[in-house]
Amino acid sequence: MSTKILLVDDEEGIRKVLGISLADMGYDVITAESGEEALSLFEKITPPIVLTDIKMPGMDGVTLLRTIKELNPDTEVIMITGHGDMDLAIKSLKYEATDFVTKPINDDVLEIALKRAHERINMRLQIKNYTENLETMVKEQSERLIEIERLAAVGQAIEGLSSAIWNFAGGYEGGIQYFNEMPCLVAIHNSDLKIVATNQLYRERLGDRIGGDSCEIFGKKTSGQSECSVEKTFRTGKGQRSQEKIKYLSGEEVPVIVHTAPIRGKDNEVELVLEISADATEVKRLREELETTRQRHKQLFDEAPCYITVQDKNFNVTEANRRFKEDFGHGTIMKCFEIYKQRQTTCPNCPVEKTFKDGNSHQAEMVVTSKTGEQINVLIWTAPIKNAAGEITQVMEMSTNITQIRKLEDHLSSLGLLIGSISHGIKGLLTGLDGGMYLVESGFFKENREQVKEGWDIIKLMAGRIRGMVLDILYYAKHRDLKWEKVDVLSFAEDVALTIEPKIRTHNIEFIRDFDHSTGGFEVDPGIVRSAIINILENAIDACMEDKSGKYHKITFGVKQVENHIVFDVFDTGIGMDKKTEEKLFTLFFSSKGTRGTGLGLFISNRIIQQHGGSILVETALGKGSHFSIILPKLLPESAKAPHIDDENASSDNL
Amino acid sequence: MAKKILVIDDDPIIVKYLVSLLNDNGYETCSASDGVEGHEVLKKEKPDLITLDLQMAEEWGTNFYRKISKNKEFKDIPVIVISGMAGRHLSIKNAVAYLPKPFDPDKLLGILKSTIG
Q1: Which residue in B7, B9, B15, B17 has the most chain A C-beta atoms within 10 A of its own C-beta, making it the best mutation to test that interface?
Q2: A614: buried, middle or exposed (CB in 10 Å: 19+, 13-18, 0-12)?
Q3: What is the ipTM of this complex?
Q4: B11 touches chain A (CB under 8 A)
Q5: pLDDT at A512
Q6: Would the pLDDT of B22 be above 90?
Q7: pTM for this prediction
Q8: Which among A84, A30, A29, A39 has a CA at the least distance from the CA of A61?
Q9: The pLDDT of residue A155
Q10: CA distances from B41 to A60, A174, A326, B37, B76 (A)
């Protein structure tokens, strides 16, 4: 069919000539002699292309163009312009004219303009097609979505069916647990009480029975009033459960639990019956297996090398393993924080609380107190326990005793601290040693005996300090068990006094013994306690030496018995200590002696005395001197006598 | 005229060592056992160079250095840090040298020679 074209011109000649040309080009030409006529024709025939003169009496070409574009913007309008109508031509282009041709009209130019019009029409058509395709695509996609929805609905139906099966399985004494592992014989029966489908296991055990009688395998005849559950299901429309005996192909007769379920057709009539038979011997075996597994879990629960508790939302310990009961058990239900921490409220950062909140495992580290009062470092790990609906009803808490690890860590970190701290001291000592050697060398060179002696004294002093420091470190690094023995207190005190006396006298300090002669014997590791007391006596000498006023000084060393304890007293008239120094006295690496102390002496002395179950007391005042009391039990506590195997390994292996 | 060096260290043995070493090599010396005393000696003796320990019982070397570097009169006096403390020299930005204890005396003398002659 040829394309319609509306030709509008007030000059009849042009309508005629152009009409012929256009007809030659294959168009179906309709003509109009005015804008008004053109418009009425346009409304009737809606030509895709309009060719119009610009200058016409009445409605001119541009107005016609604008009106047509309003009526149908897809129309291609080509303008015919006379000589000197260029302004109008351009104006018409603004109103979306396709093109313009000038009079006198050249056929080639007209053809180009028309070609352009056609291109635009085609392009519009294509765009329209695309758009429509897009709509089709959207339609297809939505259909697919609907299909997916439908499948999901089917899925839900299947899920419903499985939950029904789940319920069937539950019928056998909480048999839910076995169902997944339960080898079931599945068959589908039609209303004629014939088997229409079976599963593989069914075929393996009972042979190909498709088409066979539904109730035959149960040894029952199909009759109107039979006890066969398949038949009963058809009759009542309700699922059945029964225990039957069936005979396998192998000849073996086994007990089975039979479940049936109706499958209804569109008219809600029971069309088919699903029959699921479970071999009860398997169930029995599985139950036994489960029992064994349970026992094994129970054993694991009890014997695990950690404290395991199960707690409810109120932190009540509802279950606990043997270890927990041994170390923390109170025989009654108590809250976790009451048992572990002797608190009345939950602990900050409680991992159990967190697990109840977010369902994740949490870790924490805490120090807890056992029922015997022992402090235990524990690493806690929690896990949620959920019910079948997925709600967290309880939380399991496993706490591993890491006390030994913490002790070891403390030891190692203070060892690290020790090395850091002494390295500075050692550098000073080495520089001093260099200094002494330099003075000796330069003194020899200058033949200055005074300087040689001075240098040599420094070397001796430095060597002594280095020796002391090394011994301190060696003692600190190695934890040793007490080599205790029964020792006469008086001889022990005399021995200590004899050791320290010459040193005190060289410094022109008076030394006074104040011994109680009725002290008897005591249990002690004499070697290390001797060095601890000497360390305190040496401190007393230092305290006197620090006083540069030239005042007369004395040190009193006494021993006495107070109830079941032996008390050694060391009094000095030295510089004494302020409160700050006194408080830090027994801390590791604290020294009041500047570069001359390692900060180890009193720390170690204190540790030695504590290891004996004793203590050191201090009374001091700045400028007035100090009084140290070393209090030791006459009889060593049993805990002090027992070897510390773990500590021994820890320290010696790590040096 | 011999150059004068102020030795600041709280260990009298090290002071003695440095003083002897420097005297033997033709330098004049004066000494102080901490920052506060160091400041007094500095004002009185007007040394050409200071050797400074960092960790001292009373005022630390770092504090002493901070004070003198703010003082117009003293801020140009070269300082050699002689200390057992690792890394602390970073707080002494314009030290001529940093000698860790135990130090090499020849190295110290070499630095002194190139700094003050």
Answers
A1: B17
A2: buried
A3: 0.80
A4: yes
A5: 92
A6: yes
A7: 0.37
A8: A39
A9: 54
A10: 113, 95, 72, 6, 16
